[in-house]
Amino acid sequence: MNTQCRSHAIIFPFMAQGHTIPLLDLAKVMSFRGVKVTIITTPSNAKEISAHFGPGFSSTISTHVIEFPVVDGLPLGCENTKELTSDDQRLPFLRATLMLKQPFESYLRDLLERGDRPICAICDYFVGWAITVSASFNIPGILFNGMGVLSSKIGRTVLLNDEYMRTLMNGEKLETLSGLVCPFPLILDDFPLFKNMNTPSMKFFKENGDGGANRTCWGVLCNSFEELEGDFISALEDSYGRSSVKVWCVGPLLLYDDQEENKTSLNDQFNLYQSWLDEQHERKDGVIYVSFGTQSQISNPQMDEIALGLDLAGHPFIWVVRSSSWTRPEGWEERVKGRGLVIREWVDQRSILAHPAIEGFLSHCGWNSVLESLSMGVPILTWPIGAEQPLNAKLLVHVLNVGLAMDPKLDEVREESVRYGCNAISSGVKELMGEESGRLARKRAKEIGLMARTAVMEDGSSSKKLDQMIKSLQQ
Length: 475
What we know:
Blueprint: E1 7-12, H1 17-32, E2 35-41, H2 43-52, E3 61-65, H3 90-98, H4 101-113, E4 120-124, H5 129-136, E5 141-145, H6 149-160, H7 162-169, E6 174-177, E7 180-186, H8 200-208, E8 219-222, H9 226-229, H10 233-238, E9 246-249, H11 271-282, E10 287-291, H12 300-313, E11 317-320, H13 332-335, E12 340-343, H14 349-354, E13 358-363, H15 367-375, E14 380-382, H16 389-399, E15 403-405, H17 422-434, H18 436-455, H19 461-474
Parallel strand pairs: 1-2, 1-4, 2-3, 4-5, 5-8, 8-9, 10-11, 10-13, 11-12, 13-14, 14-15
Antiparallel strand pairs: 6-7
Helix pairs in contact: 3-8, 4-5, 6-7, 12-17, 17-18
């Protein structure tokens, strides 16, 4: 690690696990390159952020804590989206983050008065307003895009151009966008967040998020790599309407730790299920990992269908269950004993996907999960739920050839809250884990995993781009 820090960078994550973790990875990567990093956060989030870094980072990475406001409509002490208890609280939470603007301005002003001018402020696209604040102090603001390049291009174009959404609302398929021939047809169901562009949340995002930073950002940082999405970079750059805006693909950020001698050890909790995975590997039984992220809400009837589908498929599985109200179907636990492991607490997903016993991933297709899976050479059975996940799923299935989609028509589902019945789930798992299409997806995933690891090596595409970006900012 280079501890001779020549420059200072600010990183401002949005207060959600999936948004924060890649930016913490970025903080480590920049500190390895001699940049001192300050992370802007709030009191309760600061504790978790500090725990992410070992003592070796104490001189290079620090936090600046801003009080999270108390607002109507939010639980007392709520400072992270994982603490929201209903969807009705999301808009009050977003509006509360706007109240961090004044203390952020004060912090930047204090830095400049002390002669400590940051080379940049890297801000999550959900706090895009911080880009404008940084630019007002002549500090380059860099938008961190937690999505892939292709989904970012498609999402921005639809978000900022109502005519595209009107086309989709009329039932037409889109095959071309400005500056991009889509590699798959777009339909309205690909945009669960954008179906009603006039909701308060969508208006907020257009005014204060990515759309609000459109005119003032210095550049865009993507957690992707050129070998994966290089064909779409110029189209995303064009969507910002200024030739000076560059898109820097510097990922997968999670892999840089593997290149350093001082990497952190596996989480202690992983040892609780490590032995179970080891046993499956010794028996040469490929395991499918099942998880839908920290934000997805799965109904109890749908949980029953997942349980029955995994039982019918007959393959070993490790399933992370977030629901506190779901109870296992009668007799199910006995039927899957020895080949099924249900975990209800937090898991180190990256370590699970890295285990050689894991040969498939049933996933909601959040971008972090996609990168973690592909980096470990694991193919994906796609189950997109919200946000840009349907676009990620199509990328996996139709472009990268590392994913398989399930067929909901295999079941006659009567429950409104059930999307896939047990037969669709069982069939999808069997195909991914045991059939030729699954074998080909696994082979392709391993090829992409090798590309990903090469990208973050010293002469890799992402490593070079990150060095170029830091050099440009320093100059």
